[in-house]
């Protein structure tokens, strides 16, 4: 039996169509409200397979989907709620459509160690043996990822090809890594080579998953099929969402605008 909701929470659960932004602090029951909203939608006749539930760990997303199913008195495996993180959903959709981007559907996903190794190889190929003060691969991996997460937009994905996207690396270094400014020319070469090597090895890092999913949504039929499939999109912990993730959400939500995001703006990291 679900814990009773207060009037504001009940209003959120029963909100039917159109966008909704729910701002609430820690301990206010945000996740419980999202879970009960999913259950309410299914009870109202919305097919579970047309609901997308996103949060920032796969475990949390699975638990929310299971609770929503159980509140409807059915076995969880009978409820095909799409649930997961942005990255897991990106991987899922890319696995079936990656060939549109000239990847095999069984592409590899790089972990942090794999990324450092490829960057190390890119350094060796582009500048040879680096000096003692040259930034380590782990530092460059963090710098490249931060540039991507701050500056990747739908415009950058639409306007240039994969290898040439540098995501304002020069601006980021000028503002936040001034001690690396003397290496900017080399870093741009290394970033370009790193991206070439990922592409050549049929590999994606975690940032590529988001970038390539957005490209699929913007340029190819994946966007149309997802728009047809999804009727309701719910995002928990929305304060952790960055620009590219927000752009990803916009595409499948366009036909109906049934997008509900829930978060605590006091904890925003972007």
TrEMBL record:
Location of the UvrD-like helicase ATP-binding domain: 3-270
User: Could you tell me the Gene Ontology terms of the biological process aspect for this record?
Assistant: recombinational repair
What's one Pfam family here? UvrD-helicase
Q: Which Gene3D superfamilies match?
A: 1.10.10.160, P-loop containing nucleotide triphosphate hydrolases (3.40.50.300)
Q: Which GO terms describe its cellular component?
A: cytosol
Decide whether keyword ATP-binding is in the record.
yes
Q: Keywords for this entry? A: ATP-binding, Helicase, Hydrolase, Nucleotide-binding
Q: What are the recorded GO MF terms, alphabetically?
A: 3'-5' DNA helicase activity; ATP binding; DNA binding; hydrolase activity
InterPro entries per UniProt:
DExx_box_DNA_helicase_dom_sf (IPR013986), DNA_helicase_UvrD/REP (IPR000212), P-loop_NTPase (IPR027417), UvrD-like_ATP-bd (IPR014016)
Q: What is this protein called?
A: UvrD-like helicase ATP-binding domain-containing protein
Q: What is the lineage of its organism?
A: unclassified sequences, metagenomes, ecological metagenomes
């Amino acid at each position: 039996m679900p814990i009773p909701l207060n009037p504001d929470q009940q209003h959120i659960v029963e909100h039917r169509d159109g966008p909704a932004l729910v701002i609430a602090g820690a301990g206010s029951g945000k996740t419980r409200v999202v879970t009960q909203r999913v259950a309410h939608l299914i009870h109202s006749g919305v097919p579970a397979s047309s609901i997308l539930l996103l949060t920032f760990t796969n475990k949390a997303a699975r638990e929310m989907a299971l609770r929503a199913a159980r509140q409807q008195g059915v076995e969880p495996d009978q409820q095909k709620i799409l649930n997961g993180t942005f990255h897991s959903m990106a991987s899922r959709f890319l696995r079936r459509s990656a060939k549109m981007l000239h990847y095999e559907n069984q592409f590899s996903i790089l972990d942090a160690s794999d990324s450092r190794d490829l960057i190390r190889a890119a350094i060796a190929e582009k500048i040879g043996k680096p000096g003692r003060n040259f930034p380590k691969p782990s530092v460059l991996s963090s710098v490249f990822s931060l540039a991507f997460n701050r500056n990747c937009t739908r415009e950058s994905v639409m306007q240039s090809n994969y290898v040439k996207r540098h995501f304002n690396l020069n601006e980021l270094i000028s503002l936040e890594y001034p001690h690396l400014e003397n290496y900017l020319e080399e870093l741009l070469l290394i970033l370009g080579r790193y991206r070439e090597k990922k592409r050549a090895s049929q590999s994606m890092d975690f940032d590529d998953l988001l970038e390539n999913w957005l490209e699929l949504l913007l340029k190819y039929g994946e966007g149309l099929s997802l728009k047809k499939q999804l009727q309701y999109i719910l995002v928990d912990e929305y304060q952790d969402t960055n620009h590219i993730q927000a752009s990803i959400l916009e595409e499948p939500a366009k036909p109906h605008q049934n997008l509900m995001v829930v978060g605590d703006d006091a904890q925003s990291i972007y």
